[in-house]
Write a structure and sequence with these properties.
- It is built from 19 helices and 23 strands.
- Strands 2, 3, 4, 5, 10, 18 and 19 form a seven-stranded mixed sheet that branches. A five-stranded antiparallel sheet has the order 12-11-23-22-21, sandwiched between helices. Strands 1-8-9 form a three-stranded antiparallel sheet.
- It is elongated.
């Protein structure tokens, strides 16, 4: 065979051999490995992406947005794909709000296949990142929680975590309603990785909206008044509640120090607490109204029952006097309440008896949850009747030895204001447009006793009363001051330097439509409720009565 023909034959044989090998390989891949390769191809060409549900908005009673969710993206990197970490870091730093050094360290992790560069970046910034078209930089769609009013009602609203779940405030107990249901989107890409088709497999279902009973304008004013208290008296903390006593709707729940809801992590732990439900304290003289209420209801006293009051009273081994020294006086039940007499309140409780007094403490809900929808509620501490000592009837009726919360006190005074029924204080009015059902207010005293108390509590603002310097033209006010020593944790004795000053009241006095409670923890420079809390009550109520157009009375 000629050399050329031989060479052609060899090449042809070699070609047939290679072709046969390729055919066998193709057949093997198609039969033996077909399913796995087909799955791999689909995985590379088809991607299922979670479409996050938009978290439901939280709005006030007038529809003003207090918490909303906006489109965002989590920015991540596959470091070994990023060709020039230094250049990429320089481009990304101003968009991600991080330093170039931080990003270089993350992008230079050659042994890492995944690293987050930013979480919940606003959509506008995420789009700018995308336009940089840096190989190895990816983003995953998500949403970010935003609080448009920043500081307003931050402790009430709470916050969410990086996973979008509610952590604190109303965001926590209503998380399952607010968060909605994520959807699923299928993206088909070509061999070059470019998307050529998008299919929504499952639509995202947005979360339900919460409509609150809070009023933003009233909330803002209440917080501003507390800020004045903070600046003037430099307390450890302060809280104020504005409630409609007829139904328990909370119109404002304010705390000081304030917290920026968009920077919850930047606030100290103590400032994040909602003191309205989470602060327990001895109420002092504000508790005397319940002492008198029980005695009136039991018929032990009448508003005009006269008492000859010595300067001090001995109860078992203790001698108890007034907050200010005085001589012997004669006061009626109404006068005892108006002038906040310790001696008189103890004598009223003694006349009613320890068993009946203990029963009224329980009936007014102390030592129990109010049922409010605000999370983190404490129950306080109430001494069981069987644990009373000989001197208990000397300190308990004047608000020492019992721990309460501002919310419990507000609910109790609501019964005084509304004809004798304790409502459930609540901040959420509607969920997803549907009104939330509430238990009916629970009767605790009669309408007659409630009216008697309201009339007597007007005396607190009259000449000689403990809040006589507070007035609102055109409106009759009713309320009670409170000043209580705090217990020193080291000695177990009452401190002579640390106090809680408070005031609770309502208006118009005979047919109340608004109730306001102010509690100030450890004020400096002044300690009495009449000096610290009562003027704040006056400021809040002056604004609220006019703002809500409540007729004078």
């Amino acid at each position: 065979m000629p050399p050329i023909a031989a060479r052609i034959g060899v090449l042809f044989a070699l070609f047939l051999g290679l072709l046969s090998i390729a055919a066998l390989r193709a057949a093997w891949l198609a039969t033996v490995k077909g399913d796995s390769l087909d799955n791999a191809a689909r995985t590379q060409q088809v991607a299922d992406i979670t479409v996050p549900a938009r978290r439901g908005a939280i709005v006030d009673r007038r529809g003003i947005e207090l918490a909303v969710s906006e489109p965002a993206a989590d920015i991540s990197a596959t470091p070994y794909i990023v060709e020039d970490p230094v250049k990429a870091a320089k481009q990304l730093a101003p968009l991600l709000g991080r330093t170039e050094d931080e990003l270089v360290k993350l992008l230079a992790q050659e042994d890492s296949g995944f690293v987050y560069l930013a979480r919940k970046l606003p959509a506008e910034q995420a789009d700018r990142v995308d336009r940089l078209d840096i190989a190895g930089i990816d983003q995953t769609p998500t949403t970010r929680r935003v609080y448009p009013r920043n500081w307003l009602a931050a402790q009430v609203l709470g916050t969410v975590g990086t996973d979008g779940a509610g952590l604190l405030g109303l965001e926590y107990p209503f998380d399952s309603k607010l968060r909605g249901t994520d959807g699923e989107r299928r993206v088909i890409r070509d061999a070059l990785g470019e998307p050529i088709g998008v299919q929504d497999v499952k639509a995202a279902v947005p979360g339900a909206a919460l409509e609150l009973t809070l009023d933003s304008a009233l909330q803002d004013k209440t917080e501003a008044v507390l800020a004045e208290i903070g600046a003037t008296f430099r307390p450890k903390g302060a809280s104020a509640i504005v409630m409609d006593p007829r139904n328990g709707e909370l119109l404002a729940v304010a705390n000081w120090p304030r917290v920026n809801a968009n920077d919850y992590g930047g606030a100290p732990d103590f400032a994040r607490r909602n003191l309205a439900t989470g602060f327990t304290y001895e109420p002092g003289s504000t508790f005397k109204a319940f002492t008198v209420a029980g005695a009136l209801e039991d018929g032990a006293v009448e508003p005009d029952t006269s008492f000859n009051l010595p300067p001090t009273i001995q109860v078992a081994d203790r001698v108890i006097g007034e907050s200010h020294d005085r001589g012997a006086v004669t006061l009626t039940t109404a006068g005892i309440l108006a002038q906040s007499s310790n001696v008189g309140s103890i004598m009223i409780a003694q006349r009613d008896g320890e068993d009946r007094f203990a029963g009224w403490v329980d009936a007014f809900g102390f030592g129990k949850l109010t049922g409010t929808d605000l999370p983190g509620e404490e129950i306080g501490i109430v001494l069981d009747r069987e644990d009373y000592s000989g001197s208990s009837i000397g300190n308990l009726p004047i608000g020492q030895g019992t721990l309460v919360t501002p919310m419990q006190m507000s609910a109790g005074y609501a019964a005084v204001a509304n004809g004798g029924r304790i409502p459930v204080p609540h901040a959420v009015r509607r969920v997803d447009g549907r009104r939330v059902d509430r238990p009916a207010p629970r009767r605790v005293i009669s309408e007659e006793t409630s009216l008697q108390l309201r009339t007597m509590l007007e005396g607190v603002f009259a000449p000689g009363g403990t809040a006589s310097e507070v007035s609102i033209p055109g409106y009759k006010l009713a309320g009670k001051t409170g000043t209580a020593n705090k217990v020193d944790a080291e000695t177990g004795e009452y401190s002579q330097e640390r106090y809680v000053a408070s005031f609770v009241g309502f208006a118009p006095a005979l047919k109340p439509k608004l109730l306001t409670m102010v509690v100030v923890d450890e004020p400096q420079g002044a300690i009495y409720g009449a000096e610290v809390a009562a003027p704040a009550f006056g400021q809040i109520m002056t604004f609220a009565l006019q703002y809500l157009k409540i007729p004078p009375g």
